[in-house]
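cron nightly-structures :: item 1 of 1
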Amino acid sequence: MTAPELPWAVLADYRCFGCSPHNSHGLALEFDEHPDGLQTTFDLGRSYESYPGVVHGGLLGVVCDETMGNLIVVRTGLVAFTVSMRMRYLAPVATGRSYTCVARLSAGSAAGAGGSPLVGATAEIVDADGIPVATASATYRNVPFGTARDRITLTNPDADRLHQALSTTPALSTTADGPVPVEETL
């Protein structure tokens, strides 16, 4: 699989806790295309544990949110803000072991379809044997860059670079089901 170009990469010093290589305290997740969406493989050490030897569940939420949110951004070229997210923990995730998170657009979900700005996604974290250890579902609000610009702090040159990157983000292939709007529940 190939790695999609995330629009944030045009910012020399972006600090996203989930996906930035510039944040020494972050997870530095890297993403690859997956036949159904987007994936990341990760191995979190003891600095990220709750109980001894077990990854903190909140960090698994970060992994799922980053993977789903970035899937939406690379599919739509729009900024995606998390509206709601639900996690389900199926088994403890051990520190020092490799896991993969795969995100997919929810069936019947797309930004702008039917006039709704909401997009649904799901994520599943599996162990090295492909056994699910956590699942997530979330709703995101896609917004044009001009609206997002009012909510984030960037210098004008960085804002211009990010806007250009979002405008030229090549979309990943879509599923055969095609997108349908998510019901607005706000």
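cron nightly-structures :: done
Residues 172-186 have pLDDT under 50 and may be disordered.
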